[in-house]
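Section 5.1 Outputs to date
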Amino acid sequence: MTAGLPSPRAARTILIAGGGTGGHLIPALALAEELRAAHPDWRMVLAGAERGLEATLLPTRSFPFHLLPAEPLYRRRPLRNLRWLFILGRLLREVDDLLTRERPAVVVGTGGYAAAPVVWRAARRGIPTAMLELNAYPGLAVRLLARRVRELWLGSPEARRHLRPGPTTTVVETGAPILPPDPSIRQAARSRFGLSGDRPVLLVTGGSQGALAINEVVAAWLQGGGGRDLALIWVTGRQSHARYTGLHDPPAVQVYDFLDPMAPAYAVADLAVSRAGMMTLAELAAWGIPAIVVPLPTAAADHQTPNAVAVEAAGAGLQVPQRAFTPVRLAELVGRFVGDPDRLGGMAAAARERGRPDATARIAARIGFLSG
């Protein structure tokens, strides 16, 4: 599927491939927005998968895009990978057609099963290529392509030791491409959420898809009398939101299915409970928000656990395995952190030290360099 036609006035085209989940798609959109602002005469084109989140999100954005018949690799159900015997030929033909039609000056992969074939075919054609890896343990696509691409951009410095770049590959620790924090919105955000006084604010978010396991623990904690000394902003995700609307009791407890943008919630939060997706962790770090991090145990190759370990090692939060995340444990940790302002402040400082609020601009500058 293709949307948007080539513009003959565009000085150059930048093709950004990635998707499947928000963790791969949101960075692609952030880069496209940054590049469009910096270079209005450039043409940004996005490529993703027909079955990914991008199939519903990209039509709502103003960028031309292409959806490819790519599928993930199934680690737990390997027989499903037999589907690749039927889609590989079509996929490669569509990728080649895309590269011929768009003639990109640079191809960037932001991860996911849609990125690898596009970056691989572009590298074979001699097109300048780069891959963005946000996780502390790199994904399969980045590990396989590390020797072929011109540049590797790392969201987490811990990823470097797991990669074997080629002799001509430049590795740059850029951070994750997020919207820079704007602390000046704090007072307006407090008014938006109806917050007053000095009660600490706890933000709970499971990422773009929500997190049922986290939601169930938070619900039980509230029903058991937890959170009385806090204000809670709880983003459940859309799929399970209806289960928790009965607990919505503003301003003390505010239950949302989705917040876009998230910046107002970050601006008022003193502590967060979250999954360990790198985009969320990068945003929390940039805003200086300590986090209780609960990695998704079923994430591909368990990639969220190394992310959570890195946050804890930096002193910016604490990782809790999902099996150990209970209402009692949540109450203990929230009480410990909120009851010790000095410790909470130290964790916030460690988070800010790890944050890279200028990452999007840094990556955009690298794309400009690669494009000549």
